[in-house]
Amino acid sequence: MSSVLQHPFNEPPAPGARREVAPGVHWLYFPLPFALDHINLWLIEDGDGWTLVDTGFGSPGTRDVWRAAFDDALEGRPIRRILVTHYHPDHVGQAAWLADTFQAPVWMTGGEWALTRRLHQASDDEVGEGFRRFFGRHGLPGDALETLARRGNSYRRVMSALPPSPTLIAGGDRLEIGGDAWQVHIGRGHAPEHACLYRERDRLLISGDQVLPRISSNLTVRAHEPDDDPVTDFVDSLRALRAALPEDTLVLPAHGLPFRGLHPRIDDLCAHHDEQLDAARAACGERPLTAFDLLPVLFKRELDSHQLMFAMGESIAHLNCLHATGRVRREERDGILYHVA
User: Fold this and answer.
1) Boundaries of each Metallo-beta-lactamase domain copy (predicted)?
2) Which of 8, 50, 161, 193 reaches 20 to 30 Å from 291, CA-CA?
3) What is the CATH architecture assignment of 18-122+161-284?
């Protein structure tokens, strides 16, 4: 990923503090307990209060940062509306608590709300058996498979309550926030119906996880949609975003620094997945491979159990794309899927 991006801000604000990045739009920076160690949230001035885009991870530490921010970053002004870009727990994790605290409605797309509810309502046994069946079929061996299965529903553990039923938004909607029109653009692949927000008057895009400056967002396949092709969905929606928005758009991502250079960044992301597909196909040409076998081809680092779950999902995603486009075929042996180029 080689594009040279322009970063108008060299460092983030302190956790819980805010920094104005465009008229009426402010940056909040919250820690995360992962290798990806932070998330950016966005406050938009909205009358006598705020519209908040994304909410932070569902942990007590995040709530502590929020409590400090109520009087500092928010200046004691209420959150009037909570807009969630997608279902991941660092984005929706505090939506229920903040909605209750401020009596604020939650807005999100129908696809994200449906998956949020599905994941939250699954039992530990259902999730564990889903891992055993799905990842086992893709070659994950016994000890690693049992470690993932025994985690149960980790999604619900970091999001103890669902937010109230949201106001649903969709691609093409124009939302009025603080007297400005923000258009909803939909990203796919990383999430089923990821909402990005664009303000035309100053070419400003809140991109969530759909366009990040340093990494490509995880593209995963879930057990309930085993033949899903998130790689094609991701690339196609990126190209649609590139065609719709100008190159000098200021991108406000969920992780990393704000940047300009939307078009070359999208080009690099698409090229990265083309390279991953080529590498996967070449490896399958040498010998039949499972998704587990493919991990060292796609990931050049050691994976812990948390990273292994996402890596398996992404390996399956690239193999599903190759299968859907006729570049590999599947062979099932003793209940395990192998892929042959």
Assistant:
1) 38-255
2) 193
3) 4-Layer Sandwich (3.60)
pLDDT at 36: 87
Q: Cβ of 160: how many Cβ atoms within 10 Å?
A: 11
The predicted model scores a pTM of: 0.97
Rg, the chain, Cα only: 20
* C-alpha separations of 135 from 141, 147, 336 in Å: 9, 12, 9
Compute φ and ψ for 11, nearest 5 degrees. -150, 160
Question: What are the extents of the domains in the chain?
Answer: 18-122+161-284
Q: Is the pLDDT of residue 2 over 70?
A: no
DSSP 13-61: PPTT-EEEEETTEEEEEEE-SSSS-EEEEEEEEETTEEEEE----SSHH
Mention every residue, 6+ apart, whose C-beta is less than 8 A from residue 138: 290, 291, 292, 312, 315, 316, 336, 337
The answer to whether 77 touches 211, Cβ cutoff 8 Å, is no
**Could you count the other beta carbons within 10 Å of the beta carbon of residue 249?**
24
Question: SS3 sequence, 80-101?
Answer: EEEECCCCCHHHHCCHHHHHHH
Region of 241 please: left (phi>0), alpha (psi -120 to 50) or beta: alpha
Nearest to 138, CA basis, from 321, 314, 301, 328: 314
